[in-house]
Design goal:
The complex is a heterodimer of chains A (494) and B (330). The longest helix of chain A has 16 residues, at 174-189. Chain A has 2 domains: 3-238, Rossmann fold; 251-493, P-loop containing nucleotide triphosphate hydrolases (Rossmann fold), CATH 3.40.50. Helices cover 35% and strands 25% of the residues of chain A. Chain A has a 6-stranded mixed beta sheet with strand order 6-7-8-3-9-10, sandwiched between helices. In chain A, strands 16-17-18-13-19-20 form a 6-stranded mixed beta sheet, with helices on both faces. In chain A, α15 runs parallel beside α16 (429-444). Chain A is of the alpha/beta class and 494 residues long. In chain B, 44% of the residues are buried. Chain B has helices at 2-9, 12-30, 37-62, 70-88, 92-116, 121-140, 150-154, 173-191, 193-203, 205-210, 215-241, 253-262, 274-293, 298-328; strands spanning 157-162, 168-172. In chain B, strands 1-2 form a two-stranded antiparallel sheet. The chains are: A alpha/beta (494), B mainly alpha (330).
């Protein structure tokens, strides 16, 4: 295949941080090339250099179809056929599908709008990739998956030869991901080069021919995707070996902490019965919309079931609010840590103690500063949260450390049942590992843990037992040490 | 076009139009004076000032900004222009050009502050409202200009028609200017690339920047257009009032904002149409006029206007929420 783009000796420094150090990369026409690396590995900087948003340092060369540049600007990059589809898609929700697709070709300058040309361009772009959307619908009325199609059509309208997709699958359901990957293969057939930037390694390997791994601004290497697997990639990305697999425990010897019997809620889930034992990590997985999160919210008192029973330590529990759940020793780490789990602008310390203000409060309901600080310091130390000052806002922390603050906040309530909903979304592999370790430590101390995730390896390697949910029902139960990724994948998608 | 009609039926404009029709029918039955040529003509003439400003503010709101300094801009444009017209004679063309230039210049100050310093437009325009207005009152001592050039006082009357009671109707300066400004605004928003860029900017500022739109130029255009409408509006107001009062216009900015928001424009940007703004203004005018004709105290009138805005905005928010739910479960 002909080389479309070649980067040699690309370096970039921001202040004291070496974002990229002497990186070489070649991209061929008609290939799907994945770019993986942890946060801060230099992926975004590399994309910015290719799209012309940032110039590389002197000595670097960018060769596009045998034309050499020392750096690009956004206009040159677009003209050379490079299009970036950002994670937020960069669409105009208030404009129609046609305008969003034709915006680059027809809305520049100061002259009258040629609506016919806009529609024709949009139609041609859609035909090229075989999608069919109503041209006159506003983008805000489309589903996320269809909005993504609009973004891809816009790239097609700009005559893209290289399409860079930044985390394209982050907010799609499995079904939609499959459709997107099919489309990517279609683009590839047309000789377009696609660069896929993704955190989800299983998807990366499904579609890519080559994988380039970056770590700390340096290129680790470019590999044939066929020779890679999740585990190998994780090692390359982090430079660390991970010890997965949880030692099996004898569940029958343990006391049951939480159990449900025929728990149902119309429209959410039906006939859910399971037992959760002391020190057990119970994984629950299933597709988006299988009822996992709704079930978790019910156990946390926020989504009352309309049938069946919940028992905690042998006593029947009828939760009507999350306050009651917390009082009964149930904690819930939500899926969406940014909006539901943390107050990002507030100090780390305040976020940590927010669940136990009642316990800490002293004279006249005021919070004694000494007690506040010692509590916070203890959690920061126990969970090894990397902070310079606990009075800085939580948003100054990395994703992994933010998630630790969320965990600290709930562990401060001394829960007997801890429900974790997708605890590692958007968290780096090495930070993920830290979170798993914390969870294991908690389980070893007797806390019963429910781990909800749509990443099969996550539940497989970090739970003792796994429940599969589908359309609101439990459709399978597996013991982790007797199961495998393939078995679970079949069960989930059955 | 049944599909287009179905789309229209779900729109904010359809809802507004229905409310206006109900009000008009109700007021026509309940009062004698409402549905008369004289009343409608007076309404159009006296709301032209708000209408022209509304067309300018609409453009600002669509771009994702806001401006409340335009009444002060209008006062300054009016004062300077009439002062010079009294001194040097001048003619229609020159006074309008002059008022427009003053308006555009003050609009440019807003645009530069908002864009270059990256301060939110509400803060900038609150500040410039006070600066412009404070300077004007300080320098003029708040003195009215009572005598205007005779040709100006006379105004314009086209297609004049005198009815049995010897009341004359026709296309006057106010109606003409209103029609011109609404048409111009519609053309800019729907028929030029700049108009679509303004919608795009209001819809997603970051995406507009990534696509290489010149955001500074767009801001200049938007706030200068607001200034231009303020300049034009200020003259037709002076002509109607037959005087220039530096303290009279400031305070009207919220009425204009009310009309535009009633018309479906969103303070979040990206949303709003000229047709909607016309309907919003009509609703405001019919309501205020109707309440007066019904003999309701003007304080109540304010209360009702507030209530209608609240209801309208709530209805829009609720339907948007329903729509979002629809998309989610798709």
């Amino acid at each position: 295949m002909p080389t479309f783009l070649e980067l040699t000796h690309i370096s970039k420094r921001f202040g004291g941080v070496q974002a990229l150090a002497d990186v070489d990369l070649t991209l061929e026409s008609g290939e799907v090339h994945c770019l993986v690396g942890e946060n801060g590995s230099g992926k975004s900087t590399l994309i910015k250099i290719i799209s012309g948003v940032q110039p590389p340092e002197a000595g670097g060369k960018i060769i596009i179809e045998s034309r050499e540049y020392s750096h690009l600007n956004p206009v040159e990059s677009t003209r050379a056929g490079i299009q970036v589809i950002y994670q937020d898609l960069s669409l105009f929700p208030n404009l129609t599908v046609a305008e969003n697709i034709g915006v680059g070709q027809h809305l520049g300058g100061f002259h009258s709008v040629d609506w016919n040309a806009i529609r024709a361009t949009a139609k041609r772009a859609m035909e090229r990739i075989g999608v069919n959307l109503d041209l006159d619908v506003k983008v805000e009325d489309l589903s996320i998956a269809n909005r993504q199609l609009v973004a891809i059509c816009r790239a097609m309208a700009a005559d893209a030869k290289l399409v860079i997709m930044d985390e394209p699958t982050a907010s799609l359901t499995r079904h939609e991901v499959d459709a997107l990957l099919a489309l990517v293969r279609e683009l590839k057939k047309k000789g377009i080069c696609i660069v896929f930037v993704s955190h989800r390694l299983d998807e990366v390997l499904e579609v890519a021919e080559r994988v380039t791994v970056l770590r700390d601004g340096k290129k680790v290497g470019t590999y044939d995707a066929k020779e890679m697997n999740d585990h190998k990639l994780a090692v390359l990305m982090t430079g660390k070996e991970f010890h997965y697999d949880l030692a099996a425990i004898d569940l029958s010897a343990r006391k049951t902490v939480l159990s449900t019997r025929h728990l149902s809620r119309k429209g959410d889930y039906k006939d859910i019965s399971f037992d959760l034992r002391e020190g057990e990590i119970l994984g629950i997985t299933g597709l988006l919309g299988s009822g996992r999160t709704e079930l978790a919210l019910s156990l946390f008192g926020m989504n009352p079931p309309d049938g069946g029973e919940i028992h905690l330590n042998g006593k029947r529990l009828a939760l009507t609010s999350n306050r009651e759940a917390i009082d009964n020793g149930i904690a819930y780490v939500s899926e969406d840590r940014l909006t539901l789990g943390l107050v990002l602008e507030q100090p780390i310390a305040s976020n940590t103690i927010v669940t136990i203000l009642d316990k800490l409060k002293g004279f006249m309901g005021l919070i004694p500063q000494a007690a506040r600080q010692s509590t916070v310091d203890r959690w920061v130390k126990d969970l090894s949260i990397k902070v310079s000052n606990t009075n800085n806002p939580v948003k100054t922390l990395s994703g992994g450390n933010q998630q630790r603050v969320v965990l600290a906040k709930w562990m401060a309530t001394a829960p007997r049942v801890l429900i974790l909903d997708s605890p590692t979304v958007g968290v780096d592999i090495s930070a993920k590992d830290g979170i798993y370790e914390i969870v294991r430590g908690l389980a070893a101390k007797g806390v019963a843990v429910i781990l909800i995730s749509d990443e099969i390896p996550e539940v497989l390697y970090h739970s003792h037992r796994i429940l599969i949910m589908r359309n609101g029902r439990i459709t399978g139960e597996f013991e982790a040490h007797k199961s495998s990724e393939d078995v679970l994948r079949v069960a989930v998608n059955a | 076009m049944p599909e287009n009609f179905a789309r229209f039926r779900r729109s904010h404009e359809f809802w507004l139009l229905s409310v206006i029709l109900i009000l008009v029918v109700g007021l026509s039955v309940m009062t004698e004076g409402f549905l008369t040529l004289q009343n409608l003509f007076d309404l159009l003439t006296s709301y032209a000032f708000l209408g022209i400003l509304a067309s300018g503010l609409l453009v600002v709101l669509i771009s994702g900004g806001i401006d409340i300094s335009f009444t002060a801009t209008a006062s300054i444009a009016q004062y300077i222009t009439m002062l010079l017209a009294n001194k040097y004679g001048l003619n229609w063309f020159i006074v309008f050009a002059m008022a427009s230039v003053v308006g555009i210049a003050l609009g440019a100050i807003n645009a530069v502050l908002i864009d270059r310093l990256n301060i939110s437009s509400i803060i900038v325009s609150i500040a410039t409202l006070n600066i412009f207005y404070g300077l004007l009152v300080f320098i003029t001592g708040g003195k009215y200009i009572y005598s205007l050039p005779p040709w100006f006082s006379h105004g314009i009357y086209w297609f004049e028609y005198v009815d049995a009671d010897e009341i004359s109707y026709g296309i006057n300066l106010q109606i003409l200017a209103l029609a011109v400004m609404f048409t111009l605004t519609w053309l800019i928003l729907n028929r030029t690339n700049i108009g679509r860029q303004i919608y795009a900017l209001g819809g997603n500022r970051e995406a507009a920047q990534r696509l290489g739109f010149n955001v500074f130029r767009l801001n200049i255009l938007v706030y200068c257009y607001m200034g231009l409408t303020a300049g034009v509006a200020s003259l037709i107001q002076a002509q109607l009032a037959q005087s220039v009062a530096p303290t009279v216009l400031v305070g009207k900015e919220l009425d204009v904002l009310a009309a535009v928001v009633l018309g479906g424009a969103s303070l979040a940007g990206g949303v709003g149409t000229v047709f909607g703004t016309i309907l919003g203004l009509t609703l405001l005018a019919v309501m205020q006029n109707g309440l007066i004709l019904l003999g309701v105290s003007s304080y109540y009138s304010q209360f009702f206007v507030g209530l209608v805005i609240l209801l309208s905005v709530s209805a829009t928010a609720l339907s948007a929420r329903r729509k979002r739910k629809g998309v989610m479960t798709e």
